[in-house]
Structures are given as C-alpha cells and as structure tokens.
Amino acid sequence: MTPFEQELKRALARQQPSADFTERLFARIEEEQAAAPVRWWQRIAQWPAQTIWALAPVCVLILLTSGTMLYTQHRRAVQGEHAKQQLLLALRITSNKLQATQRQVNEVESERQPNQKDNIRRLL
Amino acid sequence: MTQSAGLVAEAILPTFTEAVELHKSMVFSIAWHFLRDRSRAEELSQDVFLELHRRWGSLRSAEHLVFWLRKVTGNRAIDMIRSRKVRPETSLDAAAEPTTLEQMHDSLLASYLERMVATLPEKQRLAIVMRYQEDLEPDEIARILGMNVSTVKTNIARALSLLQAKTVGRLQPNTARRLNEMPGETGK
Question: What is the distance in angstroms between the Cα of A38 and the nearest Cα belonging to chain B?
C-alpha cells in the first residue's frame, strides 16, 4: 500500500453514529411492529433457517402423499369411465343382435303363413 | 470493534441486538463517507437495520450478514443520492484551493481527503470506501457491488489517480514527496 493509500485509509476510518442510535432504532422497530400486525407468513419468514430446513422434509412428504392420493383418485375415475364405455358398447351390440334375430324370425313367420293357408284350402 | 466484520466472518449468526452493536459503525461509516451528511447517513443506517430486522430469518451466517449489510448500505446510498439529488458540496474540479492547505496538518489532510472522496462519481466513491474503509479486496468489492473485478480495479485506479493529483498538488513539497512514494499502486 502506498503512503497515499495509507493516508486515504486513515481518512476513511470507521466512525460511530450518535449515542442514541440503537435506542432510536429499537423505538422505530417497536413502532413498526405495533402499526402492522404480523401475519402468519411473516412469522414463518422470521423463523430461523434451521427450523425451515428441518420442516422441509415434512412438507415434501405431505406434498408427495397428497399428490399420490390425487393421482390414485384420478386413475380410478378414468378406469370407471372406461368400464362404463365398454358396458354401453356391449349393450349396443347385444341390442343390434336381438334386433337382427327378431327380423329373421319375422321373415320366417311371414313365409310360413301363406303355406299354411294353401294347406287348409287343399284340405277343405 | 472497528474491523468487527472480519472477526465474525464464518462465525454463527449473532442475535439482532448484537448485530446492531457489532455493525452499526460499519453501516454508518459507509453511509457517512458516501453522503457526507450526518443526519442522512444516520437515517440511511436506521433504514438498513430496519430492513435487516424484517429479513432477519433469511440470513444464514455472520459472513452473510456482513455481506448483506455492505451491499444494502451501498445500494441505498446510491439510491438516496439519485432520488434526493443529494450532491456533494464541492466537486473535484471546482474545489477551492485553500491557502491553509499549504501548511496542511495530518488531521486536516485526512479531513480534506474525506471531503474529496465524497466528490467522486458514485461507483468510484463506493469502491474507494469499500477498499479503504472496509479493507476489502477488489474481488470482494465486485461481489458486493455486482460488478466485474476488472471494473472495480479500474474504478479504484481512476479514483486514486484523481484524488492523488488533486491532493498532492496542494501540499508542501516534503509532504507531497512523502505521499508520492511508489505512486500508481492501487491493489495489495
């Protein structure tokens, strides 16, 4: 360090603020605290970092559990919907088959009825 | 207690009250050397400690505390200068050349240098205060001010040569010779 820098260092030595500095500061802090009630998130923000780190695994566990529960619920809903669609399709197919069978029975019936009339006429 | 910041580095975080007692002179001196206005420097220091109280939970260590205090004080000092148009009473170029400087005593020289520092441009002034008041290395100053190390070194070198040119020219030959030994060295 050059002599000039040493002079500069001496000139820029630390100085003390006024004697009542701390007192005034704490008065201002009290004033501020009285004016604004502390909210829950502000209380959490004031917690020591160690406490926050200690609570972090618990928060992660809660998030994971609730996430898993929500996912399971969602999966069940999807499976239920799928089963419903399959049931509706099966009913539709069954209904179509029944209609086709009914149509065939009707056709056979209508073919048999004129033959029966001819037979009766022949007998008479 | 003048260099308390260095002593508490890497130590556990003190209580808020201890932190105020330990660092109030550091915070006040940065503000005072920057603003050259006692009441504004006190007001700024109080604001810094109020902010510290609000953010107390987010601080991790004593080292982090000192870093935070220096950074916030520096930024707020610059903000105060810009928002309130606080200007130094004299500028380096316009500074009068008092005849009493011819017989400048050491304490007067210190006082003169202090006033001249307050006339430097903002960034140079803050770099000089951090370098010579806080005894910080350029890389530490760069971290606090959010600048490149080379920019900090340039700022310090420019400020030093400006201050030296203005001061040495006004001294008695013997004093000037003493101050001019090994000129131009700015870092450790």
Answer: 11
Q: Alpha carbon of B63 to those of A47, B12, B66, B89, B145: distances in Å?
A: 19, 9, 5, 35, 16
Q: What's the gap in Å between the CA of B87 and the closest CA on chain A? A: 19
CATH number corresponding to B4-84: 1.10.1740.10
Chain A: closest CA distance from residue B83 (Å) = 23
Chain B contact for A2, CB < 8 A?
A: yes
Question: Which of B7, B46, B177 is the best substitution to test chain A (most A C-beta atoms within 10 A)?
Answer: B46
pLDDT in tens, B61-106: 999 999 999 999 999 999 998 886 555 544 455 444 444 444 455 6
Whether residue A49 and residue B57 make contact (CB cut-off 8 A), yes or no, is: yes
CA dist B119 and B34 (Å) reads 9
Contact B50 A47 (CB under 8 A): no
Task: Give which of B16, B182, B84 is closest to A26, Cα–Cα.
Answer: B16
Domain boundaries, chain B: 4-84, 99-179
| Amino acid A41: pLDDT | 82
CATH 3.30.470.30 fits B99-179, yes or no: no
